[in-house]
Amino acid sequence: MSEAPLLSLAIWIPILAGFAVLATGGDRNAPLARMLALAGALVGFAVTLPLYAGFDPTTPAMQFVEQHTWIARFNIHYLLGVDGISMLFVILNSFITVIVVLAGWQVIDNKVAQYNAAFLIMSGLLNGIFSALDGVLFYVFFEASLIPLYLIIGIWGGANRIYAAFKFFLFTLAGSLLLLIAILYLFFSSGGSFAILDWHQVPLDAQEQFWIFLAFLVAFAVKIPMWPVHTWLPDAHVEAPTGGSIVLAAIALKLGAYGLVRFSLPITPDAAHELTWLIVAMSLIAIVYIGFVALVQEDMKKLVAYSSIAHMGFVTLGFFVFSAIGIEGALVQMISHGFVSGAMFFCIGVMYDRVHSRRIADYGGVVNTMPKFAAFFMLFAMANAGLPATSGFVGEFMVILAAVQSNFWVGFAAATTLILGAAYTLWMVKRVIFGAVANHHVAALTDVNAREFAILALLAVTVLGMGLYPQPFTEVMHSSVNELVRHIAVSKIQ
Q1: CA distances from 163 to 143, 153, 192, 258 (A)
Q2: φ, ψ for residue 64 (rounded to 5)?
Q3: Could you tell me the pTM of the whole model?
Q4: Measuring CA to CA, which residue among 308, 324, 311, 321 is closest to residue 474?
Q5: 3-state DSSP call for residue 388?
Q6: Which of 91, 119, 364, 443 has the fewest other C-beta atoms within 10 Å?
């Protein structure tokens, strides 16, 4: 195993690169800002690859651990580490950062340095969330990551960007306050430790677990987002620039789900079992009801945003069937959704850059003028609908299998989303891609350029690769997930 501080490098290289990009000045140095941003993103991604190469999948223990005293008086440490649950998300986040920098290469011509710096700094902060093993450090990264995304939506977003940015910020901040209260309570309950792994062993009674679980649930449900605290997401997606939508869907939505599996399940396992009915109900509503909501959307971004809520419902359902295959399926679904949703929002961005409309009715017959783009769009749309041999199928299949083993009717209800997902996805594809050329805007479209083709090809390789051969993703999870399931089972109220 490498002795290099890989996790610190994954956190601080993008952040320092972001400040270096800011130092280039105004838009007069935009080419330099873009090159520096791409270099920072590529180096940031490169230092995460040894995490996978040097990872030992046979142990559930934290690996690549770094520990330094931060605030000695309060026993707060700069404590980092990853296991089979968190390591892949560090790599995914760093990969998506490269995609985002490339996606905005020619599109963003206003405040170029600030735009790229915001994404780089956010990338480092997100890696910090997935790596932090100290509660205060986690909370600092968790809250700080709101700021760049708030600025991205508020500065480079659409006409209603200020409303969307404030709504996003207020929703997530309100939930985070309860997270802070829970962290402080666990600090005192553990005898003065902020180490998250120490909290997994704290003996909490049923009432304590109940209230801490609810605090965690509110904080993380907003981030996922779960029904009924999901209303900020469609607004944020519609108003965000393409890069903001990609990061929001591919990474930011995963923070809440990661919090559930890192905090809620191992720290309050008894309460998690007692309130399973609540989470399952909220998950099924997200899967089924939000699927119907997606069916009636006229805006492509809103349709994909609502589909993201439905897909994340699978994630929460998988966690709360309390089986290894369900939790692994949920984690696989999170990673797959990162690729697929990022690709879908990039495709919508490609069309928007040419037509300046996201309305489905303004398109039709795109395949006639953009055949290469149409092929990619079809692939990602089918992955979004859960077509076998794409990454979208693997996680959903595992979660449905686990749900059926736990309760047939829950699994049956969850499986309906495969029909709904196909319905709203194919409805959009039919009206946007196929048919005769609908209007002069579509007739004037030009196919993807080399930069766009490279981005779409990279995402296509990940979607197909994960769908055809998911083992490299699942094998690193086994030990950590099995240990989590064992911990939950031992703690379950008899």
Answers
A1: 20, 10, 41, 27
A2: 55, 40
A3: 0.90
A4: 324
A5: coil
A6: 443
Residue 51 — very low, low, confident or very high, per pLDDT cuts 50/70/90? Answer: very high
Classified as helix, coil or strand, 63 is strand
Most confident of 48-52, 204-208, 318-322, 410-414: 48-52
State both tokens at 458: 């990279």
Report pLDDT digits (tens) over 297-317. Answer: 888 888 888 888 888 888 888
Enumerate the H helices of 356-407 as residue ranges: 366-369, 371-384, 391-406
Look up residue 156 and give its two tokens. Answer: 């480079």
CA angle 478, 481, 487 (to 5 degrees): 135
Distances (CA, A) of 369 to 262, 305, 379, 413, 476: 47, 26, 18, 40, 43
Burial of 357 (0-12, 13-18, 19+ CB in 10 A): middle
| Number of residues that this document lists for the chain | 494
pLDDT digits (tens, 9 = 90+) for 204-250: 888 889 999 999 998 888 888 888 878 777 888 788 888 888 888 88
Q: Which residue has the tokens 């992955």?
A: 383
Is 427 strand, coil or helix? helix
CB of 95 closer than 8 Å to CB of 126: no
What are the phi and psi torsion angles at 205 (to 5°)?
Answer: -80, 175
Q: How many alpha carbons lie under 13 Å from residue 19 in its C-beta half-sphere?
A: 5
pLDDT at 190 over 70: yes
The Cα 280–Cα 473 span in angstroms is 26
Cα angle: 350, vertex 367, 388; to 5 degrees: 85
Is the pLDDT assigned to residue 432 strictly greater than 50?
yes
Q: Residue 359 forms beta bridges with which residues?
A: 299
One-letter amino acid of 398: M
Residues 103, 147, 36: CA angle, nearest 5 degrees? 40
